[in-house]
C-alpha cells in the first residue's frame, strides 16, 4: 500500500519490499525505519536486504524490531530518538503499519494532545484505542492501578450536564453522581446576543461553577482525554481513570477559531468580533456604537452550529441601532451564509424577510468564510453554486461579526462513541448511545437532527434522567422517556421585539403559548420580555436546579420503536 502520512515528517505502511525502495526515494522519502523483526513471515525480506536496497537508492535505513503486541516504553523511546536522528521525511513499516503507528503515538505523548494523536492515527487507518491510557500517561505503561468509581458519571458541567444532574437528583436523591469539568466559570451563553446588542452586561451571564454543582454531586475538576466504553471507563488527562455504571456525555461543542485562516490573530480588534465568545461580545457593541457608515458583514458557517439563529440575531440588533441613530442608510449590511436558506424552519422565514427588507440587508448564500486579514479589512469566502462549482470571492469590511466553524470536542470526535461526522452517536428519541447502551448524551455534542440550543438541553435533561434511572431499576416506568427534537430560538429582530421560533424534529412548529399571548409567526414585545426577563432566571433557578416547568418528558413509543 502507499505510505499513510501521520505528520509531514513521518508516514507508515505495511511491509516494504526491496524493489519498492527506489519508488519511495522518488516520492521524497529519505529514511526507512524497519519495525518488523526478521523471520516473522515466511516470504519476508530480511533487514539486510532492505538496507542494501536502501543504500543503493541513497536512503538511510534503521532497524528497530518490535514483536506484535509487545511495544515497550523503551521501544517508543528508541523510535523517538531515531526520528530525531534520521533524515526526513521518514517511512516506517511493519507487517501492517500498526506497530509503527503505535511507536509513533507513544513517542508523541506529552508533545501533542491525545485527541490529535488518535485523530492522525485514525485518519491513516489505525485504531490506537488500545494504548490510550499509555499515551495519556506520557507514553509509559501506567503503574498506578487506582481508579475512581461512581454510579453515574457526567462529562461536562455546562447547561446539559448540570441540568441532567439536577434532574436525576430531583427524581431520586440518593445517587452517586460525579461531574467531570475543568472550568471554573459557567456561562449563560444565550445572553451573549444581548451583550452584543447593548442590553446585558457581560457579568450577568456568568457564575462561579462551584455555586452551580448540585449538592451531593462530586465535582472532578479535570479534562477528559478519552473514553473506553467497553471498560466503562473515562480517561482523564494525566491517565486517571474514572469508572461508571452509567455515563452521560454533555461537553458541548468546539468553536474552531483555527478553521478560518488569520481569524485568531485579529479577533477583538480591527473591527473583527463575535458574540460567540464572552470576552468579544462587548466589542460587538463597541463596534456597533462607533460605526457611522461603511460595510458591515455578518457570517454563518456550515451547519451544524450552536444556536443557528444567533448569527442573524447579532445582525438585526446592530441594524436596529444604526436605524435608530440614522446611520443605517450609510451602511451596507451583508449576511454571508454558508448554507442555502435564511432559517431552517421555513414557517419563520417570512417574518425574518420583512426585517431583511426593512434594514436593506444583502443576503449571500453559499458563502463560507475561509480567510480574514483584519489589518487589511478584507475577508475571503468560498462560494458554491447550484452545480457545486467553487471559487474564492473577496469582501472588504469596516466591521465583521464572525461565527466560527464548529465541531464536536476533539476527545469525542476521535472516540469510539462518535458517529462518522464526529458527533456523539445517540438514538434521537431516547438519547441513549446506539452501540453502547450504558452511555447517554445531551446538549450540543449529540448527533441528533435537532437545533443545538439551551432550550433543547432543557427538554433533553429530564429525558436522559428518567431513562438512566429506568435502566438502573430505580423508577418503575415500562416505557422510555422520549425527546421530540424540541428547540427554541428567540430571534431578536429589533430591540424590544422577538420572533419566538419553537420547533421539533422535521421542522414542525410546536409553539408553547396560545396565539393571543405570543404569536410565534410575528415579532412580539411579549416574546422580547420572555427573552430578556424570564428566560435567564428560568435557566439559573429552574433548569440548573432540577425544576422542569414545561419540560416534563413524554413516555410514548418512539417512531423508531
UniProtKB/TrEMBL annotation:
Key words, A-Z: FAD, Flavoprotein, Oxidoreductase, Quinone, Transit peptide
Domain FAD/NAD(P)-binding: 150-269
GO biological process, one term: sulfide oxidation, using sulfide:quinone oxidoreductase
Domain Beta-lactamase hydrolase-like protein phosphatase-like: 4-110
Keyword Transmembrane helix: no
InterPro entries: BLH_phosphatase-like (IPR005939), FAD/NAD-bd_sf (IPR036188), FAD/NAD-binding_dom (IPR023753), Prot-tyrosine_phosphatase-like (IPR029021), Sulphide_quinone_reductase (IPR015904)
MF terms in GO: FAD binding; hydrolase activity; quinone binding; sulfide:quinone oxidoreductase activity
Classification via Gene3D superfamilies: FAD/NAD(P)-binding domain, Protein tyrosine phosphatase superfamily
Pfam families reported in the protein's UniProt record: BLH_phosphatase, Pyr_redox_2
Cofactor(s) this protein cannot do without: FAD
Superkingdom of the source species: Bacteria
PANTHER family: SULFIDE:QUINONE OXIDOREDUCTASE (PTHR10632), SULFIDE:QUINONE OXIDOREDUCTASE, MITOCHONDRIAL (PTHR10632:SF2)
Protein name, entry field: TIGR01244 family phosphatase
